[in-house]
Amino acid sequence: MYFSVSEATHLSNYKIQIAFQNGKSGIADLEDYISEGEIYQNIRNPDTFKNFSIEFGTLTWENGEVDIAPETLYEITTGEKISFNYEKTYKVV
Fold first, then answer.
1. Average pLDDT for runs of 10 along the chain of length 93
2. Are 48 and 65 in contact (CB under 8 A)?
3. How many structural domains does the chain have?
4. Contact, 18 vs 3, CB < 8 A?
5. Contact between 45 and 37 (Cβ < 8 Å)
């Protein structure tokens, strides 16, 4: 996957240095992102937050119970907006 996380290192608080398979990298400050939503409640504790792993190309916490989509991590880390342009082609039979 183009936006898959290849490496990640916890820096401080809610900041993670992230490298992607496409060669881009940067620092993601996820404090604001995880401040909302019940699913992120358990990783709002800084000690829990720093205990992540990389699974299936994205960051996961709590044994895979919590994750953030790699596309979201890419946008936060690089500041580049991702646009998916899907066109459906239909064949008349």
1. 90 97 96 95 94 96 93 95 69 65
2. no
3. 1
4. no
5. no
The enclosing domain of 35 has a CATH number of 3.30.2020.10
| Residue 85 placed within a domain | no
The pLDDT value recorded for residue 60 is 97
Question: Phi and psi at residue 55, in whole multiples of 5°?
Answer: -135, 130
Give per-residue burial for 18-52: e unless 16+ CB within 10 Å, then b: bebeeeeebebebeeebeeeeebeebeeeeebbeb
Q: Cβ–Cβ contacts within 10 Å for residue 84, how many?
A: 5
Q: Which two structure tokens, joined as six digits, stand for 55?
A: 């699974």
pTM for the model: 0.84
In a domain, 51, yes or no: yes
